[in-house]
Amino acid sequence: MAAHFLASAACVLVITDGVMRPPAALLRTHMPAMAALEKDAVLSSQEGARAPSVVFGQQPPALTLLSPAKVNMFLRILRRRDDGYHELASLFQTVSLFDTLDFWLRAEEEPCEPDVPLCSMEVAEGSLCADLIPTDESNLVMRAMLLFAERTGSTQRLHCRLLKRIPAQAGLGGGSSDAATALHAANRLAGFPASEDELIRWGGELGSDVSFFLSRGTAYCTGRGELVEPVAPLQPARCWLIKPQIGLSTPQVFGALGLSAGEELPGADPQELLDQFSDSVDDAPYINDLEPPAFSLVPLLAELHADLGRLGFTAVMMSGSGTTFFCIGEPSPAAADTWQAELSGKYGVDIFGEAFCFRGDDPALWYAEQPTVPAAAAGGGAEPEGAAEGAAEAAEVRGAPPDGFEWGGIF
Ligand code: C5P
Description:
This protein is α+β, with helices and mostly antiparallel strands.
């Protein structure tokens, strides 16, 4: 199995230097060991000097948004429903590993010929596993833009360029996050015809995790995962992501639970778990009911979990249906210098040094348009380099909701 981990290492090895940084600066420290994620592509995507779009060339996008990954602080599976889905209860938290989505609008006066689609997308150079990312309607970003057009009657013709950094089949919600960001972008560029509640509902139709990404970054999710109850931001925390090269598909992991229709899975009361995490992420019990089925499918995951558990982090757990593990806090001083190289050598994992991130209270702000790693977690109060200019620039392009815009009741 170890050989499989290494043999499938087709994408990227990312190791950070262990120093806490806010997201924009953090991305500049990712040092890829393989060619698929070029350092230049990461830098240029952060700093505006991008490779030309295959459709729009050098024309700057109308809107650029970052799309965060998520981890599940706890994940209880309560019961298998008659429709085949599983009733769950989970505390979701966004983290500072981002895809980037650029959006262009085709000119209104451009005649809409039958062979020119209403919406289109491309995958940016330097994306993780770029060759495997579809650009047709099987991509959730395309489905989100088309669903928005269908529901609002908007005739705006959107083109999206996706720069993928969040690994797939990882339990990090990358595709769902991109879909939520596409819904938000389409609505913003169309002048906010849809309320945030509508976007959240439509997100739930696209996928169980999509609605969460329209929240402020911390939410208690129930039902299939699409019922989103925002909760107060968790205490700031360092969050390392450890991604084995092997992935697992969500249906496969849920299936391996082996529940029959209506069958319940006993375990801790999710409301009590929620209270415990609200008090402190340091002392709360980390429970993911999808770890046993994932470990049964890929036994090496249990070994990796045990190795991570010996490093002295505050907590170690698999996120969602896996295969990524997240580690809260820092390793023990004894392990500090060597743990990344040792884990990469043994398992071929990619390692991302991240932190919780939050969207902020201002409804006009999207993720990471402002510094999102709180000073306490970043180890100092300094604003990231260029953050003020970045925020001003974002303010110019992102537009603002009109007076009286309905942000929905949940935030
Ligand atoms: O909703 P989404 O398309 O993300 O779900 C993918 C698959 O994961 C579903 O078809 C189902 O097999 C499984 N799933 C589940 N229970 C959930 C969420 C997803 O069984 N709550």
